[in-house]
Amino acid sequence: xxxxxxxxxxxxxxxxxxxxxxxxxxxxxxxxxxxxxxxxxxxxxxxxxxxxxxxxxxxxxxxxxxxxxxxxxxxxxxxxxxxxxxxxxxxxxxxxxxxxxxxxxxxxxxxxxxxxxxxxxxxxxxxxxxxxxxxxxxxxxxxxxxxxxxxxxxxxxxxxxxxxxxxxxxxxxxxxxxxxxxxxxxxxxxxxxxxxxxxxxxxxxxxxxxxxxxxxxxxxxxxxxxxxxxxxxxxxxxxxxxxxxxxxxxxxxxxxxxxxxxxxxxxxxxxxxxxxxxxxxxxxxxxxxxxxxxxxxxx
Length: 299
Ligand code: GDP
Fold this sequence. Notes:
It is found in: Cell inner membrane; Cell membrane; Cytoplasm. Its EC number is 3.6.5.4. The structure is a single chain. The protein is of the alpha/beta class. Helices cover 49% and strands 12% of the residues. It has 12 helices and 8 strands. It has helices spanning 3-13, 17-22, 30-42, 47-61, 68-83, 111-124, 139-152, 165-179, 195-209, 231-242, 261-269, 290-297, and strands at residues 99-104, 129-132, 156-157, 183-187, 219-225, 247-251, 273-277, 285-287. Helix 7 links the parallel strand 2 (129-132) and strand 3 (156-157). Helix 3 (30-42) packs antiparallel against helix 4, helix 5 packs across helix 12 (290-297) and helix 6 runs parallel beside helix 7. Bound molecules: guanosine-5'-diphosphate. Residues 105, 107-113, 141, 144, 190, 251-252, 254-255, 277-280, 284 line the site of guanosine-5'-diphosphate.
């Protein structure tokens, strides 16, 4: 059993208490299917996907006597089908020197933590990383990133609270170029309550980094917190109005009662789900795997 599976399974098990209750059925009649559908909706798959999964299931198994294990297997296969197209690894294009990765998302979703984890991830692959503490609005975010920098041995470009994030991004890329770094992660503020200001801030960061490289940012990762459930869908919509999001990272799947949100996200957005966060430690980042996730979700 891989680390991804065991860690994630503990979190996802909470999503599926209802599903486990529904799995006692042995004869798949309409009532049993309805109960399963409700359980999937409760796990945050959303009505559309839950309906599709159950429809697929109805076609293949309706009226049959099935064991709970068979139900689990068939449900996992249906869910994996939805997830497969979006389970795309995060493979930065390192022909850019440096690859510039902008990390966006609402406050508290885990942006800063995820940047620290990615610094370790790519550092471990022999890549040299620079981090930019661009969430200058939240003093703690700057300190937090500095701690991650010490842990991962990667330089952190930071300013005083309230410093201009675009200026820091500029410094970060300059530094990365000077030292021949492979990738720069730019942390950003997540003040969604002040959408206009945030939009301007992100636009300015992008303008400034394009002075170095007009193809930058080369990736824009939107971080989402699985525990916010369906709200994550709205966050994707709002952030896509502001920036060209290239992929998603879903955090807090270790404690989530709503792991199904990843399935809803896959269906609604079609955006790649690159990585998932399964804890607060530096190693708690996993590549997203459709089959393993689907299997974890159905228990
Ligand atoms: P930011 O405001 O988006 O930069 O969010 P932070 O990186 O500061 O994270 C907010 C909180 O979420 C912190 O307490 C993190 O330790 C925690 N956190 C981040 N990712 C995960 C995760 O995958 N699992 C758990 N359980 N907590 C996480």
